[in-house]
Design a protein that fits this description.
This protein has about 425 residues and is an alpha+beta fold. The protein is built from 19 helices and eleven strands.
Amino acid sequence: MSGQRYQAYRVGGAVRDRLLGLDVVDIDWVVVGATPEDLLAQGYRQVGNEFPVFLHPQTQAEYALARTERKHGSGYNGFICDFSPDVTLEADLQRRDLTINAMAELDDGSIIDPCGGQQDLAARLLRHVSPAFVEDPLRVLRVARFAARFKPLGFHIAPETFALMQQLSRSGELQTLTPERVWQEMSRALAGPRPDVFFDVLQDCGALAILLPEVSHLFGVPQRADYHPEVDTGLHTLLSLQQAERLTTDAAIRYAVLLHDVGKGLTPTDVLPRHTGHEARGLPLIRAIGQRLRAPKAWQELALLVGEWHLDCHRADELRPDTLLRKLTLLDAWRRPERFADFLTACEADARGRTGLEDRDYWQRDYWLGAFAATQVDMPALLAQGLKGADMAKAIAEQRLSQLTDYRNHYRHLSPRPG
């Protein structure tokens, strides 16, 4: 788009990702020298209340007027914006968070880079644009997310930027963020590469203690070295997230892995490094986190199941047939087989999230899946007997228990004790 008075530029992530050789999914545009009336006259549709953003009449791509921001209050929304036609491209880029996100591009491919973004791309550096970085507390989460996303490419946070993240964490500004904004960044990090890096960065800069204290409290809490060679519970959580990334792209499973051991943060110090009963202690915390972050209901439900039953999943071959049946019932495996499979994946990530045991054989998955398969009943045969109501439920339970008993005995005969 161009006119006598205004010019559109590709900006931000689209420019950054193209220069990195990554797929460009979304393209954002900034328009310099235009008024809202100029864009409306060309058929653009205005959206958003904080500042004018317009959707292209054909592509629906977002076009924002170049703007500057001036802090006038606390929190993410405490800004006064100026989007007048005389705001320059350079002024718009100067308000952005990181130098690698503060580049613009013309249609001919030429790059406008007043903040040194190309140099920092080459150096694999996440560096803030200006001291105004500290005016927006959400940037702490955004930098942590970029650190996670680009960790496989070798990116790291500039020391001076990390110092500003620590400053923001101490300032009280993080407490002004709405749950929706926190969850948006956190859920995107859980869905992306290296979610462990996201939470590790937040822990190191002091933000996790404010945003997710239940997880932050796990760092420094010891566990039995014979089960957890890494000892530290916080480190185990990060290692488990690494394994969850290896096993699945499902962010809901990764969320459950993140929270599975939060009860260990409440273990009395006089019984450490043992954590007997941590599963039950963790359930109120998992509920509180889900409600506070407003996580999707399905995510909360899976996290509670993993938090409560992950140890039983690990010791599967120790459970009697009636206990196996009861656990499958509590997991609602027959009505929710997909969620049952997700539960097993989360438990596998927990088992492998231990130093030196990352590639262990998690035989328990096959054991539980075999037990589940063994509980399938011959419904037509039961219906042919005219069974109904309580009699039908009793017959189903008896048949399942009998088949589980046969399965367990057969499994033990083949494999006396899995290693």
